[in-house]
Structures are given as C-alpha cells and as structure tokens.
Specification:
Blueprint: E1 2-4, H1 10-17, H2 26-38, E2 42-49, E3 52-63, E4 66-74, H3 83-94, E5 99-102, H4 107-112
Parallel strand pairs: 4-5
Antiparallel strand pairs: 1-2, 2-3, 3-4
InterPro entries: Acyl_CoA_acyltransferase (IPR016181), GNAT_dom (IPR000182)
Protein name: GNAT family N-acetyltransferase
Keywords: Acyltransferase, Transferase
Length: about 110
C-alpha cells in the first residue's frame, strides 16, 4: 500500500534512499530528505506491506501537470517481487490526469513498468 512520507518515517526513508547510487553520502542523503520535507513540489511515498515499510518512491513536480520520478528504492530482501512496479502503478493511479516520467537514474526501471 502506498502511503505519504511523514517525519516519523525519516530513518526508514533515509535507509531506503541510501540504496540509490547517488544517495550514498550522508550529507547528500540528509539534504534530499529535507527537500522532501520542506518543498511542496517534492513528493515522497513509502510502500507498506503489513507492518513493514519496504519501498520508497520520490518525485518532483516540475509544474502542476508533470512529475519526474527521481527515486525508486526497494529493500534488497524484498526485491524481484514486483514492489517497485506496484509503486509506480500506484502513483500513476493516484494522479491519473498527470504526466509522470522518470529522470536518467530511474528511467530504465520506470519504462519496464509500462
């Protein structure tokens, strides 16, 4: 189930974000989380199954109709189970009239979800 990020999930979100190749540095990771917390154009979602948060998807609204997915991450022990694809599908369903694309880092995975 897709849920919106809240400050109480900060450590879990940072852990999931740290699996992204460009988010290995702690200072960079902290800056990214701050953007998601403070900038209304940055939207962060978490994927929850039962009581565990096992995935993360983050995007940036470049205008009111277009979002670019910048982060897609799944806990390594839950990969290859369709969770990433389910997150992409859920965000597209959440914003059916919007154009959602991916950045360079996420585009290969994003296109596999179609």
């Amino acid at each position: 189930m897709l849920i919106r990020y809240k400050k109480t999930f900060e450590k879990i979100a940072m852990g999931l974000l740290s699996f992204m190749p460009n988010e290995k540095d702690l200072k960079k990771l902290q800056q990214t989380i701050k953007h998601y917390e403070l900038d209304e154009n940055w939207q962060l979602f978490l994927w929850k199954e039962e009581e565990d948060i096992i995935g993360l998807l983050g995007g940036i609204w470049i205008d009111e109709d277009n979002m670019i997915i910048h982060h897609i991450s799944v806990n390594p022990s839950h990969r290859r189970q369709g969770i990433g694809k389910n997150m992409v599908k859920a965000v597209k369903e959440l914003y059916p009239d919007k154009h959602i694309t991916a950045n360079e880092e996420t585009k290969e995975f994003f296109h596999k979800c179609d």
